[in-house]
Amino acid sequence: MTFEIRKAGFENKGAAMMLIAASQEVKSRFPAARVAMAPDATSPYELRARYGLWHRAELVRRGVDLGKIVELAPGKLRHRFGFVTGAEVDVILDAAGLAYSDQWGPQHTEDLARRAVAWKRAGKRLILLPQALGPFGTDRIRRAINVVADHADLIFARDKYSMKNLIDAVGGRASIRLAPDFTNLLVARPPANPPRGEKLVAIVPNARMVDKTSGDVSG
Q: Residue 177 is part of which domain span?
């Protein structure tokens, strides 16, 4: 069985924690499973290899997926170099979350909707992992999220506000569940040289605190 984790990478700590936690949990439950991701600028080879992630071939340029060239190679040769194809993926775990909202526009949700239809037709399972979702205010994004809901096997909202956003857009469905953040599945490793002192607090700033705020705040 092959799982693909999509829309999570190593660009920021939150996305990396989701990717690593989901991968570790899949491997603990299905030891023989492959866990893959589509390489991009946020997921360099060194980090993918460190966590035992297979490479799902995809390279879209001007609407054409050049990664399909890899499908021409025999399976044994592909697997020798750590590649799996889209056809080999059985379960898709989507961790994009807030990308599916008015804040980011309809394009991401529409892309997922197109893929969800194709995956369902091919007999694949789609699960949206716990993340913030919505709101879905425009007609385009509401249409797209309804297509996603029609074709996804499970959609996990991370909080009651996301749950409400989702139900307001697609109605109540058995496939929609409320579930908390899952990155706490990771085991923390104490630093080799911990700072001295009492009442220390670690703060991990999100990248959005930089690119979504004014210069006087982000600077």
A: 2-186
